[in-house]
Amino acid sequence: MRIVVGITGGIAAYKAPELVRLLVKAGYEVRCAATEHALEFVTRVTLETVSGAPLYHDLFASGGTEHISLKDWGDMLVVAPATANIIGKVASGIADDALSTLLLAFSGKPVVMAPAMNSLMWAHPAVQRNIATLKSWGIRMVGPAEGELACGTSGVGRMAEPEEIVRSVATLLQHTGTLAGQRWLVTAGPTYERIDSVRFIGNYSSGKMGFALAEALAEAGAEVALVSGPTSLTIDHPRVTLTRVESAREMYAAATSLFPQCRGAILSAAVADYRPATAADHKLKKQGDEGMTLQLVQNPDILATLGGMKQAGQTLVGFALETDHELENAQGKLQRKNLDYIVLNSLRDKGAGFGVDTNKVTILARDGRREESPLMSKREVAELIVKTVAP
Ligand code: CTP
To answer: How far is ligand 1, taken at its centre, from the CA of residue 6, in Å?
Structure first.
């Protein structure tokens, strides 16, 4: 695999040679393209030495067509660091030097950017708008991370570490296209069950695991229908279609109508098992000292319903959040709901479960195989689940 590393003029450019070195070590062929400003921070000799290839930085050096031949040569373009300037130029279609010209020519192949800038610049609406534009075109962002910045302050804006960038590159290249042509359904988030016009019964699910799963499936090439309960999360991926619902019954209607066209479904939503028997359309008044009783009725079980609808060739994956007899309970659910895999979250594990960015799971397969993950980011857990259930 061949990677073009683009370097722009931010202080984090001093980490670019390390990134190139790690990519070469991981077995990739690398060539570098740098802006004039990048060469204020890192030298041509360093970049040519670590990559073992001539640096591309002069648009007119070899007849002005090098950006096209580099585009043909590379399987992926990684821009690290990516300044606010290069992000703005690409979002606006400006090609006024070697790297920006290469970026516009690099169509149909994966592009990854590792933004790095001061946190005030990162937060600027123009930068955020440009990032959203690039993401909507399928450009992957790694970072920025939070931490100390070169200007002496700290905040969001540090370039992701070279090791993290290499990991993203590896996953993207490994997965590109393996699920191409497949449709997958993912449910995510909590459900809200209405009590009256201003109150509901809900739960603490953030939706992070489901959104990470949708992204991992989409990156593996699948078209994803993501059905989510109320959450503040958003997703910007050209192959993910997000349907927002509120209650378990709305999620049930969306999921059961989408499932027949899907190759598989991963249900990670924390669906309320019960809802109030009646939902008042006005605000209920206080009932006084005697308290009040809410009558609850059971919601339909989406996972069990899909288990009943499942046809040969479809894969159905459920989640189980357990506190005791975890493996036994999860295995029981897998059989009862006719699943192919069940992902077990144990509430005993620190750093796993609701709200947090990490998770630790055990994936049980119908045939008894078992895969245990260490504590990892929800994104990494999602990639492991996708690799296991859709190899
Ligand atoms: N689930 C669902 N519809 C429901 C309830 C749960 O689709 N009405 C799905 C969840 O998305 C998850 C799995 O079922 O994938 C596990 O949910 P859980 O509530 O743990 O399972 P239950 O079978 O309801 O078992 P129990 O509450 O007894 O643990």
So the answer is: 46
Helices first, then strands: H and E counts in the chain: 13, 21
Return the residue whose CA atom lies nearest to atom 24 of ligand 1: 273
Tokens for 218, please give them: 């989409």
175 falls in which pLDDT band (50, 70, 90)?
Answer: low
At 362-376, the pLDDT tens digits run 999 999 999 999 888
Residue 344: CB within 6 Å of ligand 1?
A: no
> What is the set of domains in the chain, with CATH numbers?
2-175 (3.40.50.1950), 183-389 (3.40.50.10300)
The residue whose CA has the least distance to atom 17 of ligand 1 is 320
**Burial grade of 250 (CB within 10 A; 0-12, 13-18, 19 or more):** middle
Give me the active site residues, please. Answer: 151
214 Cα: distance to centroid of ligand 1 (angstroms): 19
CA of 319 to the centre of ligand 1 (A): 7
- Look at the chain and count its residues: 391
pLDDT category at 31 given cuts 50, 70, 90 is very high
pLDDT of residue 221: 87
